[in-house]
Specification:
Elements (H helix, E strand, L loop, with lengths): L1 H10 L4 H7 L4 H13 L3 H12 L1 H13 L2 H6 L7 H23 L2 H7 L6 H27 L9 H18 L14 H9 L2 H20 L3 H7 L4 H29 L2 H14 L10 H33 L5 H30 L11 H11 L2 H7 L11 H13 L1
């Protein structure tokens, strides 16, 4: 189920920004798209209401199948002869509807993970699962990038979208076969259950962590495509850079999994977040030469993938530690709502700011306004590292500094 879901996203979601650019969308449209991707997590309220009636696996299956249906309009849209300004907004609406339906099913994603990993080494299991996911995210974009070419028209996206629909249908079939544990019934309403979860200190701090991280992530990563394509990177190369990111994850996920299982989430979060923040400085030195720019871009995406793999596994470990079985569904979804709020603020705020910066006259610096923006906001990930030290169980876990010191001492002896 996980691999088919990743394949569907690779065919559809990973090229969404390129599709908007093919319809002559701008930075503000990319920011709006990023915002809708996070806003749609409100669909989890709907999922919370119906999960008792459908069950976890059936809710996931219905979500994945229904999410594929709106994509048919994206295939037909280039043939409708609409004004491009209208077509871009309709496309954003379709991507938003697809994400809304997916998020209704994601209400039970982490509960299903918890149901199927109780008593197992979580880091190793999640590493195996994500290696398979990232395998799909690695191979599919290579084929899609080759097919789209350098400057694809909107009509060219029809085949990837159709294949994404097929993968989503198969994902729904496999979702119905996933094992699930019993669902505890609560008398409180949906909002009461969420408020109860936020009152739990472990859930609260992890919610703050996810809000701040996704605000900064949506305000930067979503706009890499704009910075790169504005400097001559083709659509094909950009899609392949997403494959490079997946390759970075696949190469080292097993190591991250062992680190998380042995030492908890603190050291992995410290390492991944601090290096991600430092990586923001790279935006000030984007090469002008096309060959060097491509090399630089692939290097950035590979390194980001390596770091993202570690951060995601550590975050998963922290979530499983923070959320107990007696408030499983509402606990995980309270965290995801905080994540969505941060993503919405970062997406629309970043898009508006970059759109404004594009109209600001140059001031004679060796780097452009968008480079300075990406550098500063990405370096602000240091704030997320500070919050990560308040997560549940972090006080009892070894720090990154102590692990490095022990490693050096052991090698010296």
């Amino acid at each position: 189920m996980s691999v088919l879901g990743a394949a569907s996203d690779a065919f559809i979601a990973s090229v969404a920004s390129l599709y908007l650019l093919a319809l002559e969308g701008t930075s503000i449209h990319i920011g709006l798209l990023a915002t809708t991707e996070h806003f749609q997590k409100i669909a989890r309220l709907f999922g919370l209401r119906i999960v008792a009636a459908l069950g976890k696996a059936r809710l996931m299956a219905a979500s994945r199948i229904s999410a594929s249906i709106p994509v048919l309009l994206l295939i037909a849209l280039p043939e409708l002869d609409l004004p491009l300004a209208h077509a871009v907004l309709i496309a954003i609406g379709v991507f938003a509807l697809r994400e809304f339906l997916r998020q209704a099913g994601n209400t039970v994603w982490w509960p299903l993970i918890q149901d199927n990993t109780t008593g197992d080494p979580l880091g190793a299991y999640m590493a195996r699962l994500r290696i398979r996911q990232r395998g799909a995210a690695l191979l599919v974009p290579i084929a899609v990038g080759w097919y789209l070419g350098a400057n694809p028209t909107a009509a060219r996206f029809a085949l990837p979208f159709a294949l994404g629909i097929a993968a989503s249908f198969l994902c729904g079939f496999w979702a119905s076969r996933v094992s699930e544990g019993p669902l505890r019934q609560r008398e409180e309403g949906v909002f009461g259950r969420l408020l109860y979860a936020y009152r739990l200190k472990p859930v609260w701090w992890l919610s703050v962590f996810m809000l701040v991280y996704n605000l900064l992530f949506a305000a930067t990563y979503s706009f890499w495509v704009v910075a790169l394509t504005d400097r001559g990177v083709s659509a094909r190369a950009f899609v392949w850079m997403n494959s490079a990111s997946a390759l970075g994850q696949v190469c080292i996920l097993s190591w991250w999994g062992r680190l998380v299982d042995r030492h908890g989430s603190r050291s992995s979060l410290s390492l991944s977040l601090c290096v991600k923040a430092a990586l923001g400085l790279a935006w000030l030195w984007m090469p002008a030469d096309h060959v060097w720019l491509m090399t630089w871009g692939f290097g950035i995406y590979i390194l980001w993938g390596i770091l993202d793999g570690g951060q995601n596994l550590a975050r998963t470990r922290a979530m499983m530690d923070a959320v107990a079985g007696d408030h499983q569904v509402e606990g995980f979804n309270a965290i995801m709502y905080a994540s969505a709020l941060g993503g919405m603020i970062g997406g629309i705020g970043g898009g508006a700011l970059l759109d404004w910066l594009a109209r600001v006259p140059p001031v004679g610096l060796p780097f452009s306004a968008d480079q300075a923006y990406l550098c500063v906001v990405q370096m602000a990930l240091v704030a997320v590292y500070v919050v990560s030290r308040r997560l549940h169980g972090a006080d009892g876990q070894p720090t990154l500094r102590s692990l490095i010191a022990n490693r050096v001492t052991g090698e010296s002896s």
